[in-house]
Amino acid sequence: MHERELWELVEEVFGRVYGRSLSCDQQLTKLDGMTVVKALAAGVEPRVVWNVLCDQMDIPDSRRWGKGHKAPPLPAA
User: Fold this and answer.
1) Is 17 helix (H, G, I), strand (E, B) or coil?
2) Which residues of 18-51 are buried (b: 16+ CB within 10 A; e: fewer)?
3) If you count Cβ atoms within 10 Å of the first and of the last residue's Cβ in the chain, which end, N or C, has fewer?
4) Which residues on neighbouring strands pair with residue 34, listed in sequence order?
5) H/E element holding 77?
6) Is the pLDDT of residue 77 over 50?
7) pLDDT digit string, tens, across residues 57-74
8) Lowest mean pLDDT among 14-18, 52-56, 64-68, 70-74
């Protein structure tokens, strides 16, 4: 997943205004309290950031990837 795709999903799932606000303000407990913006700046993979945000906000898998999006493959272990 590229960062551009994360921002597309943020807007689609949460809405433009709320999604951007959430990305700047919501502290992600599984990422040491970083926000989406700070986690991306720190080099955390966008897919990881997206999944942590969705988990914390209780977004089910059925809505997590938006309309017509497929979940990207997991990173190689």
Assistant:
1) helix
2) ebbebbeebebeebeebbbebbbeeebebbbbbb
3) C
4) 28
5) none
6) no
7) 999 888 888 776 666 655
8) 70-74
Check if the beta carbon of residue 35 is closer than 8 Å to that of residue 24. Answer: yes
Where in the chain are the domains? 3-59
Model pLDDT, residue 72? 60
What is this structure's pTM?
0.84
SS3 16: helix
Six-digit token string for 23: 């990305």
- What is the C-alpha separation between 32 and 4, in angstroms, rounded? 23
Q: Which long-range contacts (CB under 8 A, 24 or more apart) does 19-25 make?
A: 22/53, 22/57, 23/53
Q: Concatenated DSSP letters for 31-73? A: GTTB-HHHHHHTT--HHHHHHHHHHHTT--HHHHT-TT--PPP
